[in-house]
Amino acid sequence: MKKLVLFLLLIIVPAAVLAAGLLRVPATVSTTEIFRALNPIITDAWPREGREFITRVNSFKNYYGVLLAGLPLIFLVHYVVFGPKKFPESGEKVFYYGVFLRLVHWGAALTMSLLVLSGLAVIFAKFLGGGALVLKLRAVHVGAAFSFVPFGVLLFLLLLKDMFPAPYDLKWFLVLGGYLWRRQRPVPAGKFNAGQKLWFWLGTVGGIVMFYTGYTLYQFKAPVSVLRQYLVIHLSLGLAVFGLFLVHLYMSLLAVKGALRSMISGYKDREEVAYMHPKYYEKLKS
Amino acid sequence: MARMKFLCDIERCIACNGCVVACKEGHQLPTGIYRRRVIIINEGKPGEHSISIACMHCSDAPCIAVCPTGALYQREDGIVLVNKDVCIGCGYCFMACPFGAPQFPRDNAFGARGAMDKCTFCAGGPAPTFSEKERRLYGQNRIAEGKVPLCAGMCSTKALLAGDGAVIADIFQARVAKRGSGLAWGWSRAYKD
């Protein structure tokens, strides 16, 4: 009897424990549990940001459409109601833009126009029918971006000293640059008004952001979550650039008589400087 | 009309990558283009599982929602296809897709993206059925021939099921019932508490 107990204790029990250990099957995991582990790998950040990304990207098409249709309409109303800014001409000229600055400006203007047009072609690709035409315009967008860089850098270096914000810039914004005045009065502005300064900073510093996000989107080598963020940044800043591009176009071509001429010849009428850039005019006189 | 669906039985998938190779070879895809891929968790450890992923041909497809050209469209039977003559390769669909299905060839000048390529459910594309253009741009049209997609057809363990959603759901449910692990779906399975 004792022997039997000893036998059981020394042989059977350890053997049973060993066998139980060897034969133990890992606890069954439900298919749902496995999918729960697989989903984050498959979909990455999509469950957190996917839906928002889709609605955001689609809303941009509307915003661009509103600017494209709305701004020219506003310009037309402004032109009809207030008319272009004209100044009494004394024939006296003020040298305003150097020849190098003018060359750089027109280089930037050409590449920026190409950027805006080809960018719009991608956003409104459906309207153009997509395909080879828009595919080529996408290539133009990339080429124009690289061509804009040297002009953007030079413009930044040439104009920086006149583009720092001044206290009277706020006043300029408050009176909307005097564009809603029927009577000619000097507006609070230095060599460049607050609107021009905004355009300058958006074109240069904003341009760096546009270039970086755009290049990443072109390379397509970043994580998809980063690409989503960059596309939204690119489209948001692009919207601001597009809006100010149209405003700049209207101001220079139609709203201010002589603005286009001054960027070609380099000379502004003395009266225009006196009214539109009085702080600079005072500095010139003294 | 039947609603075409893929279903990968993760209890059966052995990560042999046969589906990936079959798809690549069958459609003569260029290097770097993967219409289908296999994802593995716990590789070499207990609890290793794998799944074969391609375009899921979503009902409310995000790619169609964001495409600025209208190149993406959905057939009556739920198959999502891209018209490569209209696609501009902008990549919006890739960013909108939860599954990373859209692929882009980079054989153009300066590595620019060409028209998007993705799983066609072996249903070709908008080009005339069985035309040389369809074969070159989109690969085989096995659906028009009355065959299942190549990946599912060759799957050695029959983990990857493709076809009428109602039929493959029945097959999968029968399998789960046979395995004895209870209900395959339902509220109590999908959500805790």
From TrEMBL, chain A:
Signal peptide (UniProt feature, chain positions): 1-19
InterPro entries: Cyt_b561_bac/Ni-Hgenase, Di-haem_cyt_TM, FDH_cytochrome_b556_subunit, Formate_DH_gsu
SUPFAM superfamilies linked: Transmembrane di-heme cytochromes
Keywords, ordered alphabetically: Cell membrane, Electron transport, Heme, Iron, Membrane, Metal-binding, Signal, Transmembrane, Transmembrane helix, Transport
Molecular functions per Gene Ontology: electron transfer activity; formate dehydrogenase (NAD+) activity; formate dehydrogenase (quinone) activity; metal ion binding
GO terms for cellular component: formate dehydrogenase complex; plasma membrane
Location in the cell: Cell membrane
Membrane spanning residue stretches: 63-82, 94-127, 139-160, 198-218, 230-256
Cofactor(s) recorded in Swiss-Prot or TrEMBL: heme
Protein name: Formate dehydrogenase subunit gamma
UniProt organism field: Thermodesulfatator atlanticus
Organism phylogeny: Bacteria, Pseudomonadati, Thermodesulfobacteriota, Thermodesulfobacteria, Thermodesulfobacteriales
Automatic annotation (TrEMBL), chain B:
Keyword presence, tRNA-binding: no
Keyword annotations from UniProtKB, A to Z: 4Fe-4S, Iron, Iron-sulfur, Metal-binding
InterPro entries listed in its UniProt record: 4Fe4S_Fe-S-bd, 4Fe4S_Fe_S_CS, ET_IronSulfur_Cluster-Binding
Domain of life: Bacteria
SUPFAM superfamilies according to UniProt: 4Fe-4S ferredoxins
GO MF terms, alphabetically ordered: 4 iron, 4 sulfur cluster binding; metal ion binding
Pfam families assigned: Fer4_11
Keyword Zinc-finger: no
The protein, known as: 4Fe-4S dicluster domain-containing protein
Boundaries of every 4Fe-4S ferredoxin-type domain copy: 4-33, 45-77, 78-107
